[in-house]
Each structure stands twice: as structure tokens, then as C-alpha cells.
Amino acid sequence: MVPYGGFEALGDATRRSIVERLRHGPASVGELAAGLPVSRPAVSQHLKVLAEAGLVAVNAAGTRRIYRLAPHGFAALRSELDQLWNDALAAFAAAAEAEGEADGDDERHERPA
Amino acid sequence: MVPYGGFEALGDATRRSIVERLRHGPASVGELAAGLPVSRPAVSQHLKVLAEAGLVAVNAAGTRRIYRLAPHGFAALRSELDQLWNDALAAFAAAAEAEGEADGDDERHERPA
DNA sequence: CGGCACGGTAAGTGCTAACTTACGGTAAGT
DNA sequence: ACTTACCGTAAGTTAGCACTTACCGTGCCG
Q1: Which residues of chain B between 12 and 31 are close to nucleic strand C, CB under 7 A?
Q2: pLDDT tens-digit profile of A55-101?
Q3: Rounded distance, CA B38 to CA B42, Å?
Q4: Does domain A1-98 have CATH number 1.10.10.10?
Q5: What's the CA gap between B44 and B40, in Å, rounded?
Q6: pLDDT in tens, B21-77
Q7: Which of A4, A16, A69 is nearest residue B88 as measured by Cβ atoms?
């Protein structure tokens, strides 16, 4: 599916540029390539990656392929990130609490003295 | 700034493993490396990247460096992703409204606070 | 005070992937 | 039917980065 693949997909700067462009509305491959410093085939390959990550969807119109953002993949990314966010907050709160109590350095570590 | 840098940081699988490990609580560099298939220096380098992206924070305890998740970077990522998600939804709604086409797509519209 | 554990940095290597040009296949216009 | 436009794929090159070993500074304990 698309568990963490979305992060891999958005890890590339060119792919993020494509997403940024698609934020303002659907566009064809040629239009996307025209606004980017790379060739059309490169854009096509990036779109393939984004599509496999569920971040974009395609709508064929004649020989032109109109790409648009797909909410599906972004929703998955969002929930992943939300979990991380919650755990980060919990860890932060726990650390702050331990700090307030005492200088406790006791954890479930297997580090022998 | 580190607006999108977080996506770059989370684009690497080893770095995501580190984050996953830190979800359960703080850990030292040696502990992190012990649970990963890479060497300690590699972990150190990854932690540097994560720290520069604002995703982790350090707490020096003697010669040991205790790393933990930092809510700051995740908050930034979250808002970035929220904007993208909203635009994706808007684009989808506009497209669906313009045409009644059925692409066999299946997405849920859950909108948290 | 001398050895030891911990971890960050330097230098070098290999593999992944982003990019290129070239080609083929499909749909629309004339 | 021929031509033109649009796009995906193949093959090959190159640049970046993840990883390694080696080294050094720092803080604990004997």
C-alpha cells in the first residue's frame, strides 16, 4: 500500500515542486515540465512515483494526461504524522515530568555498568 | 528555515527507523545503533540530519547523548501537510463537480479539528 | 593519574536514483 | 491516410548520499 512510501515520494525536491504546482489546480505533463528545470520524461517518471504513493491521480483527456492531487495519499501521510506527533508530545511530557521530579536516570536499558 | 526539510529527513528508511524507535522513549546513540543494522557513526550522522530538521532534540548526560523526539519539527510538517491536504480536497471537489466521471477511486473525507 | 566508555567528525567507497536522449504508441487535426 | 502533438518507456550516464573504518576530544571510574 502506501504506508511510509509517501515520505519517500515527498523526499525529492522536484517531486515537491510538482505537488506545489498541482496545488493550484490540475495540469498536463507538458505544462508541468514547462514550469520545471527538468525534461518531460523526468516529470513523467516523478508522476509515476507520486501516483504509486497515492499522492496524485490521472485523468486521461485525449492524448493528454491531466494530473491532480489525490486526497487519499495525503490522508494516509497525515495520520502517520499525527501518531508521531502524539508520541513526540508524550515523550516530551514524560521527560519534563522526570526532570521536575528528580534526576532519575533509570530506564529499561541493557547497558551494564 | 526548515519548512520542507522534514520530508527530506523522513525520506530515508533508516532515519524513519530511528524515529520509530524514539517514539517509545528517549535513547542514547549506542542504544539506537544496537537496534539498527548500521554502525554507530551512521546513526550519529542521521541524528544530525534529524536534529537540523528539528525532529529530534538532544539532552547531554555525562558523555552520553540522550535523543528524543522534538514536537517542533513535527508541528511544522503537520501544518505543511494540512495545507496540501486541503488543496488536494479542493481540487478533487472541483474536478468532481465539473464532471461526474467515475474513476473507481475510493477516499474518505475525515476532517479533524 | 591512567585507562575506558561514549560519541561526533573526517576521509573514502559503493549503490541508488534522478536525469538525459532516443524511441514507440496513441489520439486528434487536415 | 498522412502528419502532428502528447506522453510513457528503455537504456545509459552521473551525481548524491548512506555507509564504512579510523581518529580524536570529552567525561567516569579504577
Answers
A1: 28-31
A2: 999 999 999 999 999 988 898 899 988 888 887 787 666 666 555 44
A3: 6
A4: yes
A5: 6
A6: 999 999 999 999 999 999 999 999 999 999 999 999 999 999 999 999 998 889 889
A7: A69
Whether B66 contacts B59, CB under 8 Å: yes
Specify the residue for cell string 507520486: A50
Angle at CA A37, nearest 5°, toward A3 and A22? 45
Contacts of A85 in chain B (CB under 8 A): 71, 74-75, 78
CA distances from A56 to A20, A32, B56, B106 (A): 12, 13, 30, 13
Greatest CA separation found in chain B?
A: 64
* Helix boundaries (H) for chain B: 5-10, 13-23, 29-34, 40-52, 71-98
- Check whether residue A29 has its CB closer than 7 Å to nucleic acid strand D: yes
Q: Which residues contact A6 (CB under 8 A, 6 or more apart)?
A: A53, A54, A55, A73, A74, A76, A77, A80
d(CA A112, CA B31): 12
- Distance CA(B59)–CA(B61), nearest Å, equals 6
**How far apart are alpha carbons B88 and A75 in whole angstroms?**
10
Answer whether B81 sits within 8 Å of A84, measured CB to CB: no
